[in-house]
């Protein structure tokens, strides 16, 4: 037991040093990896790891995982899986049901903002559910003729955009991980990697825009924050098409 405790502390301290050296902008990936396997509760969905929690959160993580599994069995539109703020607490919700509340303590010693933790969960769930539930008929859809493309992305959708409708009919609520593309079908999930910072995020295509000046996507403000280029306005990225998902699970 003593050896186990001693192993955990150095890893968390190293992660904290990395966080401080990055100017307090460590990614959610760093926080999850800071908790060793033997001291963590791992939340997996469709075989994909979503997050590692300190063992003190085992019961609430299990309850959240069970709620999500039940909803997958019944089926739901992927658009109903969102991150929202309720009573000053950021949560992962499915429709009106809270799946799991995000806490800064979930990231161990780093104590990332709860919003950052919840958004990371959403991105990872998009990837896990996208791989398992993508419509096989949409596998042919590409970006500029390829499943992986490089180019420039910009962002849109500030506070003044809240309440407006995207081209697919959904209303913008302020914390979506979404994007606009020229021709990819609505519901397509794409993984975006910032080539400079290495940060990644998975977004849903919900809107349209005309490609210009080499830009291949317009992402939401929230996605730009996760990728770390909101202040700059544009970023060089690699974009990979995962697949198109309209409905998850069900019979």
From TrEMBL:
Q: What class of enzyme is it?
A: lyase
Q: Where is the signal peptide?
A: 1-28
Keywords, ordered alphabetically: Cell wall biogenesis/degradation, Lipoprotein, Lyase, Signal
A single Gene Ontology MF term assigned here is:
lytic endotransglycosylase activity
Pfam families per the UniProt record, alphabetical:
DPBB_1
Cite the RlpA-like protein double-psi beta-barrel domain residue spans from the record.
149-238
What is this enzyme's EC? Answer: 4.2.2.-
InterPro entries, per database record: RlpA (IPR034718), RlpA-like_DPBB (IPR009009), RlpA-like_sf (IPR036908), RplA (IPR012997)
The answer to whether keyword Lipoprotein applies is: yes
GO annotations under biological process?
A: cell wall organization; peptidoglycan metabolic process
**Family as reported in the entry's similarity comment:** Belongs to the RlpA family.
Function as written in the Swiss-Prot or TrEMBL entry: Lytic transglycosylase with a strong preference for naked glycan strands that lack stem peptides.
Q: Per its record, how is this protein called by name?
A: Probable endolytic peptidoglycan transglycosylase RlpA
Supply the source organism for this entry: Aminomonas paucivorans DSM 12260
Q: What is the phylogenetic placement of the source species in the record? A: Bacteria, Thermotogati, Synergistota, Synergistia, Synergistales
């Amino acid at each position: 037991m003593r050896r186990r405790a001693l192993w955990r502390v150095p890893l968390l301290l190293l992660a904290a040093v990395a966080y401080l050296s990055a100017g307090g902008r460590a990614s959610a990936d760093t926080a999850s990896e800071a908790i060793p396997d033997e001291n963590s509760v791992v939340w997996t969905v469709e075989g994909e790891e979503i997050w590692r929690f300190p063992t003190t959160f085992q019961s609430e993580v299990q309850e959240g995982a069970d709620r999500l599994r039940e909803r997958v069995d019944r089926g739901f539109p992927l658009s109903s899986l969102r991150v929202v703020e309720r009573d000053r607490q950021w949560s992962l919700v499915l429709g009106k049901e809270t799946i799991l509340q995000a806490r800064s303590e979930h990231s161990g010693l780093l104590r990332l903002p709860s919003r950052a933790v919840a958004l990371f969960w959403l991105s990872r769930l998009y990837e896990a559910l996208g791989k398992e539930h993508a419509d096989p008929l949409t596998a042919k859809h590409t970006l500029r003729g390829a499943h992986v493309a490089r180019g420039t992305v910009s962002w849109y959708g500030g506070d003044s955009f809240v309440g407006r409708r995207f081209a697919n009919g959904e209303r913008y609520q302020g914390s979506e991980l979404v994007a606009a593309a020229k021709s990819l079908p609505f519901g397509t999930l794409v993984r975006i990697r910032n080539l400079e910072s290495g940060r990644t995020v998975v977004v849903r295509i919900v809107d349209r825009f005309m490609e210009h000046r080499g830009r291949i996507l317009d992402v939401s403000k929230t996605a730009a924050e996760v990728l770390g280029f909101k202040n700059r306005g544009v970023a060089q990225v690699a974009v990979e098409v995962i697949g198109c998902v309209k409905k998850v699970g069900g019979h």
